[in-house]
Specification:
Helix content: 55-70%
Number of strands: 4
Order of helices and strands: HHHEHHHEHHHEHEHHHHH
Strand order of the largest sheet: 1-2
Mean pLDDT: 77
Low-confidence stretches: 1-14, 396-437
Shape: globular
Largest sheet: 2 strands, parallel
Structural class: mainly alpha
Distance between the termini: 78 Å
Radius of gyration: 27 Å
Length: 437
């Protein structure tokens, strides 16, 4: 990451030169303004946005051209048409847009705030705990400065991580979370162009494949009402179990020399947050990984089916995207190191195989009907034998359809209060002996 103290940078994204009095005066003015500004949460999100924008400005953030905007709209239109026979869920796209990298950050910041604030609040609290109890009373109002400093520290480095992530994501739904406004399908042309060059594949083909993935995500999150909350809650629940490494915070803060602004550049937050090794946290992680894998596996399976026979390089594209999502890009790994939260669907291939088995044995409508309620979805254990899961309810329904409930020996209608093998309960609490034979 760039050496920007607390995320501060002068115009052009460069850290201040300690030998330049004008630059140092400007830097100290920024720092004084920050510490005097009231905070509204554990992360200084204004600073995070400024840092990300400064980083993108230094690296380059190409504006979206009219040609690219039209190409994105056309790709999403074609993608929705191709998905019609491949999915029982209707189109979820209300608006099609092409964003630059800054727009991706601005439009997704509300969701990042929801996901990162709980983790950051524990870091800020841990920083406050470093102050000896006997000194807290003497500090008085200065205690709030510790929280402000923590929010600035986290905001600055989170801004750097989001700036790096913005340079890699291909669409608003690229990492499997509903980050953008509902119904808005957004692609980032500059990143798609760079990714296509790395794959040595035609840009228009890569753009159409990304559009298919984005349109599939929109169908899922727009027409499965509970899914957005389910996925975000799984992320939040896991994040709530991440613990703060107080020793790492103490070591990082110990490297700061108040008389030397350059020492602030040495602070790095990676490793401060680590998953709690408890049964509850492991279960929470399993739920999160299963949710991410089911979403990504469905998207991969549906998109590959829709593109089959239409895109010449569909096999290569499908494999490239599966590897990309399973491994995570450099920026995604940086983000995970910063907040202790990985957003990779580790069991992506197993999930895709499970959706394929469901399509084979239940058809497209039967497969997508499982999104009707979270209890209908396969669990982590079902990944081991997708065919058995796909066939289970099919066999049961087939047997029930053959069963004549009116024939002698059919299932009895239970009397209210009756327990299997017992008669109905009398008002006095004793069992009745008038059971049917």
């Amino acid at each position: 990451m760039p050496d920007i103290p607390f995320g501060f940078a002068l115009p052009g994204g460069q850290p201040p030169d300690p030998n330049d009095p004008a630059q140092m005066q400007q830097f100290m003015s920024q720092l004084q303004h920050l510490l005097s500004a009231p905070g509204s949460g554990p992360v200084n999100w204004d600073l995070a946005r400024q840092v990300a924008a400064s980083q993108l400005a230094a690296a380059g953030d190409p504006a979206v051209s009219p040609y690219e905007r039209n190409a994105v709209e056309e790709a999403l239109r074609i993608a929705d048409l191709w998905l019609e026979p491949a999915s029982a869920l209707p189109s979820g796209i209300k608006t099609t847009v092409a964003w630059n990298r800054n727009e991706w950050i601005f439009k997704t910041l509300d969701v990042w705030r929801k996901l990162c604030d709980p983790v950051a609040s524990r870091m800020v609290g841990a920083m406050g705990d470093l102050v000896p109890p006997e000194a807290r009373a003497q500090l008085g109002p200065m205690q709030s400065m510790v929280a402000t400093l923590g929010g600035a520290l986290f905001g600055g480095q989170l801004g750097q991580a989001l700036g790096s992530l913005a340079a890699e994501v291909l669409s608003v739904g690229d990492i499997g979370l509903p980050l953008g406004p509902a119904g808005t399908a957004a692609l980032i042309p500059a990143n798609i162009r760079g990714y296509g060059e790395g794959l040595e594949l035609p840009e228009d083909e890569v753009r159409l494949y990304v559009a298919l993935r984005e349109a599939a995500h929109q169908r899922l999150f727009e027409h499965v009402p509970w899914l957005r909350g389910h996925v975000l809650t799984a992320v939040e629940t896991y994040a709530a179990g991440i613990r703060v490494n107080r020793e790492a915070i103490e070591e990082a803060m110990g490297r700061v020399d108040p008389t030397d602004p350059e020492s602030m550049q040495a602070i790095a937050l990676e490793g401060i947050f680590t998953p709690e090794d408890s049964p509850a946290q492991k279960a929470s992680l399993a739920r999160l990984e299963t949710a991410l894998a089911l979403v990504e596996g469905w998207v991969c399976h549906v998109v590959d089916g829709a593109a089959d026979g239409r895109l010449p390089n569909v096999v290569a594209l499908g494999e490239a995207f599966r590897r990309r999502r399973a491994a995570g890009g450099p920026a995604e790994q940086t983000f995970a190191a910063l907040v202790g939260l990985e957003l990779r669907p580790r069991r992506l291939r197993e999930a895709a195989a499970l959706w394929a088995a469901l399509t084979e044995h239940r058809g497209i409508a039967g497969r997508d009907a499982l999104w009707g309620h979270p209890d209908l979805l396969p669990s982590d254990d079902d990944f081991a034998d997708p065919v058995a899961f796909a066939m289970a309810d099919v066999d049961l329904m087939s047997e029930l359809e053959k069963f004549d409930f009116t024939a002698p020996g059919g299932p009895e209608e239970k009397i209210p209060g009756e327990v299997e093998g017992k008669g109905p309960e009398r008002p006095d609490g004793t069992e009745g002996d008038d059971r049917r034979s």
